[in-house]
Amino acid sequence: MSLFTLFSVSASGMAAQRQRAELLVENLANAETTRTPEGGPYRRKDVVFESRPVESEFTSLFRSLSSAPVSGVRVAEIVVDTREPERRYLPGHPDADADGYVAFPRVSPAEDMVDLLNATRSYGANVAAISAVKDMIQRSLDLLR
Hints:
Elements: H1 3-29, E1 45-53, H2 59-65, E2 71-80, E3 86-89, E4 101-104, H3 109-143
Antiparallel strand pairs: 1-2, 3-4
Helix pairs in contact: 1-3
């Protein structure tokens, strides 16, 4: 496996975790949104990751030397929560129905904060991996001087 290929693997992980973090922040920001342009309360969104082959200019050379394919990650799809919204009794709320219930999104701020922390740590791990590869390349160049 090429050290340059590792850059592509980590970069794909960083891009996927960035998109995950953006959706988690959107979920947190809309945890109390009862009215959207589509109608009804906000719907929670999640990402689904999938493995994808990483292609680089060195991949064909190293593919012949290694039996294991090099894989990165990408966002396969964004899933929208289709469960019924949470109903709370708030008769004075502008979005209350005839019975006084308001439909709220099924967003758990605690769960999303933990997921956001996980996404941040995963992003940081990919940054650390890129930094380690960069250091290995720099040391290799220093040995060749």
